[in-house]
Design a protein that fits this description.
The chain is an alpha/beta fold and 360 residues long. The protein has a single domain, classed as TIM Barrel, CATH 3.20.20. The protein is built from 16 helices and nine strands. It has a five-stranded parallel β-sheet with strand order 1-2-3-4-5. Strands 6-7-8-9 form a four-stranded parallel β-sheet. β4, α9 and β5 form a beta-alpha-beta unit. The longest helix is centred in the last third of the chain and has 21 residues. The two termini are 20 Å apart. Bound molecules: zinc ion. Zinc ion binds next to β1.
């Protein structure tokens, strides 16, 4: 029997995606289509809009892309296609997806229409591809005030949906450091929502996104998961605390900024080697031009990782998810069985990793 190549093995490893923004996962052709249908004049076609050189230009492109979604049908389409891409390009079996209601409400679309549109697409995708999903309502601190975070929590209370299980905080850390959000995050905790926040992202300086933000997110905001986290490496005491906490970090393997890709991979390695609890995600896959499979292959090729790391990271995704315990246990068993079968089939001699974004 032909053995499985290392690239095929990496694509087939079962994965959980915990760091993905729906506005950053719109296929370029879908964005052009929706902009046309909803009469949004994009300054340039999506493929050009998805080219940028700074973190702040990227955030502008992301917010502009979000404005192309105006009806529940648009949200359903984008959610469905996002899960289809995760399924086809990297064998994602469960995804927890950020959506920022305030990106879309200027279009005249209300919270329940946004969330029900997304859920319709996610349920259809679960039926077609067997990929489960949850939603995380998110606040972009560059454009939202703390009062808008409280408003979002009111919407979540008024229109409860079992799929919406938590809240997140994204955007530029300099615009909204963690302590601004204490009231909203505590309110979310009291309402039974899980809490995360983007923190210590390495495309922002240590002044803008310092390691102390880690401690604030844990102690003041009550986050039980964190997104990114690389800048904590600058403070050994914070690293030590995070090792003790074993709080999961959802990392983005493929930075949107070319200059940061190789340094980011080294930070991922440093955090893994330090014993931190990390998981790998794609962040904004279509805007960044990556897929889950591509992101994993790039990291494994660069860091020389093999099956042991693949198994650990695959299962870390299951444990870090916000699924109910029964579903988590089922997913864990499925992952172990798939990993065992893949490892039996893997060609031990093959160490070539193909780095094309789309394969097969
Ligand atoms: Zn993100």
């Amino acid at each position: 029997m032909t053995k499985l190549s290392f690239s095929d093995y990496l694509d087939a490893v079962p994965k959980v995606e915990l760091h993905l923004h729906i506005a950053g996962a719109i296929r370029p052709e879908t964005l052009d289509d929706l902009a046309f249908l909803n009469e949004l004049r994009l300054p340039k076609p999506a493929t050009e809009l998805y080219q940028f050189t700074t973190f702040y230009e990227f955030l502008d492109a992301l917010r502009l892309a979000a404005l192309a979604l105006a009806t529940p049908r648009d949200f359903a389409r984008v959610a469905y296609e996002c899960i289809e891409d995760l399924h086809r390009h990297g064998n994602v079996r469960h995804a927890e997806i950020f959506f920022n209601p305030h990106y879309f409400t200027p279009n005249g679309v209300a919270y329940p229409e946004i969330v029900d549109g997304l859920i319709e697409g996610l349920e259809r995708a679960e039926h077609d591809f067997g990929v489960s999903s949850l939603l995380i309502a998110c606040i972009d601190r560059s454009v939202c005030l703390p009062s808008e975070a409280l408003q979002m929590l009111e919407w979540m209370a008024q229109y409860p949906r079992p799929k919406v299980v938590g809240i997140g905080l994204d955007g530029a850390e300099r615009a909204g450091p963690p302590l601004l959000w204490v009231e909203a995050w505590r309110q979310a905790g009291r309402s039974g929502f899980r809490r995360t926040a983007h923190v210590c992202e390495d495309n922002q300086s240590l002044f803008e996104a310092p390691p102390t933000h880690y401690t604030q997110c844990r102690d003041a905001l009550g986050c039980d998961r964190l997104d990114h986290g690389y800048n904590i490496l600058a403070d050994p005491a914070v690293v030590q605390r995070a090792v003790q906490d074993q709080v999961p970090f959802t990392m983005a393997c493929w930075s949107g900024l070319t200059w940061n890709r190789a340094p980011r991979r080294q930070r991922i390695k440093a955090m893994y080697d330090a014993g931190l609890n990390i998981t790998l995600g794609t962040d904004d896959p279509t805007i960044f031009g990556t897929t889950m499979g591509h992101s994993w292959r790039t990291v494994f090729a660069d860091l020389g990782w093999r099956g042991a790391e693949a198994r650990r990271l695959s299962l870390a995704g299951v444990e870090a998810s916000w699924l109910p315990e029964a579903r988590k246990a089922a997913l864990r068993s499925e992952f172990v069985a798939t990993l065992d079968a893949l490892e039996r089939d893997l060609d031990p001699e093959d160490r070539v990793v193909e780095l094309a974004v789309t394969r097969g």
